[in-house]
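Reading is simple: each integer encodes one residue's backbone shape. An example follows:

___
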Amino acid sequence: MDSASESLLYLSETDEVDLVQRLISDNVDINSKDEDGNSAIHRAVKENKVDVLKLLLENEANINAINKEGNTALHVAILNSSIACFQLLIDHKIEINCFNNRKESELMCAMRLRLNGPLKHVRQQMIELLINHEDIDLRGKSDKSKSMLDGSNYLFIAIQFGNIFAVEKILEKDVKL
């Protein structure tokens, strides 16, 4: 990887929006990845750099890039409880129902996180937004979901995780499981 790409990856974790813009204007590869497969989008989300993320998305960075763990930026936003980045990714139409190397979709990641302490509301909000997303495969009927969920569905998984909030939201959705 060249030094300009390394600089972009580093700066994506900072508030240096002007410097990121300059690198983009200089045609640095906006989709370059570090040794862990993290793109500038992953790194901006991990550090909750909403303005940098917005700039990257406006300049057509690959919103659906995955890292070596199989995580999309949406997985990273959930795992870091970054609701602002989460919402921005959803607004920019990131794919959902993507499974990482642990066979966890974004909703599964959100449901397994503890719902107590100062992040409770943020995590509940993410769960609710995912459950109500127009593309969510709650029934686990897509070919990809069938193979990853091993014939299960999200209601059963929410029960397994002991996530009563998710159970209630799935039941409110009145999905025929």
Q: What stands out?
A: The mean pLDDT is 93. The radius of gyration is 17 Å. The longest helix spans residues 120-131.
